[in-house]
């Protein structure tokens, strides 16, 4: 979220939110509203419980469903950690729905058809393989 300069004015979406940690962080650390979209019922339930446990239910909404069938038009920041096979479809969706200037942060995989404005290596491991190009955050700004 630091990479995207999240503020209280932002509405952050996490596409494939799993346990909701990005949404919770956006709310707790930055006071931003956040929406997590998760297709797996168990993960969506776990994320919702975590949101309540962390006391950010007034700022975070977890939606159970297919991210391709859910509008992201209100998002000013989108976080994506998906496999490459889904990124092309997601990129087209973001191009259709997001306003110019919206920020998109990807983890590990790039957003097809877009050049990042910033890229950082995430220091998660001790070996050279773990610190390779596979552990990157990329920031994109939608045209």
UniProtKB/TrEMBL annotation:
One of the record's GO molecular function terms: protein-lysine N-methyltransferase activity
Pfam families listed in its UniProt record: Methyltransf_25
UniProt entry tagged with the keyword Methyltransferase: yes
Limits of the Methyltransferase domain: 14-82
UniProt superkingdom: Eukaryota
Alphabetical UniProt keywords: Methyltransferase, S-adenosyl-L-methionine, Transferase
Gene Ontology biological process terms in this record: methylation
CDD domains tied to this protein: AdoMet_MTases
UniProt key word Secreted: no
Family to which the UniProt record says this protein belongs: Belongs to the ANT/ATPSC lysine N-methyltransferase family.
PANTHER family tied to this protein: METHYLTRANSFERASE DOMAIN-CONTAINING PROTEIN (PTHR13610)
Protein name stated in the entry: Methyltransferase type 11
Source organism of this protein record: Tetraselmis sp. GSL018
């Amino acid at each position: 979220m630091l990479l995207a300069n999240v503020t209280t004015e932002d509405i952050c979406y996490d596409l494939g939110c799993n346990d909701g940690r990005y949404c919770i962080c956006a709310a707790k650390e930055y006071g931003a509203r956040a929406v997590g979209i998760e297709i797996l019922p168990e993960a969506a339930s776990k994320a919702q419980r975590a949101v309540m446990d962390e006391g950010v239910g007034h700022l975070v909404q977890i939606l159970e469903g297919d991210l391709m069938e859910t509008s992201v038009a209100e998002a000013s920041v989108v976080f994506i950690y998906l496999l490459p096979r889904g990124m092309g479809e997601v990129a087209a969706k973001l191009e259709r729905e997001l306003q110019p200037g919206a920020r998109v942060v990807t983890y590990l995989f790039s957003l097809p058809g877009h050049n990042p404005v910033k890229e950082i290596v995430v220091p998660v491991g001790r070996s050279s393989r773990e610190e390779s190009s596979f552990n990157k955050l990329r920031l994109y700004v939608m045209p």
